[in-house]
Amino acid sequence: MPGQVTKKGNIIYLNAYGQWYQYDETRAPLGAGAMGVVYVGKNCQTNEPVAVKRVVDRYANNPEIRRRAHQEADLMFSHPNLVEMLGCCEVAPGQGPIFIISRYVKGENIDKFINAHVRSLPNAEHRICELFLPVLDALAYIHTKGIIHMDIKPSNIMMEQGRNVRLMDLGIADVSDTVNSSTSGMMGTPKYAAPEQFSDIEHKPQLTSATDIYEAGITLFELITKQNPFSATTVAESKALHHGMVLPKVSGISDSVFEVTRKATAIHPDDRYQSANAMKAALKDALPPRNYSKFDRFIKKVQDSGVPVIGEFFKK
Asked: How many whole angstroms from its chain centre is CA 247?
């Protein structure tokens, strides 16, 4: 059931599933994207911080966008590598504005974390792949729930306090980077999107777990190499690249890990890994065994204790 929305001064009060939340609409947002603006709010009873996404008003009455907003908010399950959704509320059924509330995750996007703390380290590729494994765990979990994410990319992966990876979908990408379905006929971000995502909604493209596998492959490739070969200035150009080009081999990625990303990004869905668990197993097999030093074992012990491990702690 949609909740209630009230306003007192600058404060917006939101009732989602019987729980009241609030945020100050005059405070600087966490981020803004094509689909919405995200603010830091709080639970009115516990004062626990939350993230509040207000879907852009001009899209709020689009049936497909409304469906996606409610689908996102209704993911009422908990997983250590997912951002927990708390609910959705709207002014009236079938009418915007729409607000999506989730737990607030303190951290930074995974690509920024890698650039700051991992990329210059020995065996950086190995460490990046290890950081990516929880993303595949999160995908495996939502796929068992019948959910296809459709927008896997670095800006939707959060490194929480330097020690835990969470997959999210809060629309904090740049407006120019994300395509909304009301104008393009697709959901997702073109340079990460699988070929089948470029079919317009009217033709009911068959989006499956293999769609997310493709996006995961592009994302991992970019995190390792800092390159995305499918970047383009228009959706049409990006579509042509995804339909006509296989992932190119570049420097900075080992042959074994490249083969994992290549299979994940096969043009035809049947040629990709058919589950996130299968891709995870292949990625783990592609990594040579690490020779753990005493320092490595110490760091692992610190990590297991729950203490954040960032910056200097990573260095040997």
From this structure: 21
Written as six digits, the tokens of 101 are: 């509330």
Cα–Cα distances (Å) from 207 to 212, 214, 242, 276, in that order, read 9, 11, 15, 15
Count Cα atoms within 13 angstroms, Cβ side, for 214.
Answer: 31
pLDDT, tens digit (0-9, with 9 covering 90-100), for 147-186 = 888 889 998 899 998 889 999 874 333 333 444 433 445 6
Give the confidence band of 309 by pLDDT, cuts at 50, 70, 90.
low
CB 140 within 8 Å of CB 280: yes
Give me the sheet containing 157-160, strands edge to edge.
107-109, 157-160, 164-167
Neighbours of 182 (CB within 10 A): 16
Q: Which two tokens stand for residue 231?
A: 């970047």
Q: Evaluate whether 85 touches 76 at the Cβ level (below 8 Å).
A: yes
pLDDT of 75 > 70? The answer is no
SS3 category, 109: strand
Q: Provide the Cα torsion 4, 94, 197, 73; round to 10°.
A: 20
Q: 62 falls in which pLDDT band (50, 70, 90)?
A: confident
Question: Can you tell me the distance from the alpha carbon of 76 to that of 142, in angstroms, rounded to the nearest whole number?
Answer: 11
How many residues appear in the chain? 316
Burial 18-46, CB ≥16 within 10 A → b, else e: ebebbbeeeeebebbbbbbbbbbbbbeee
CA distances from 260 to 88, 111, 127 (A): 37, 20, 16
Query: Rounded to an integer, what distance in angstroms lies between the CA atom of residue 299 and that of residue 98?
Result: 44
Distance CA 47, CA 68 (A): 28
pTM of the model: 0.78
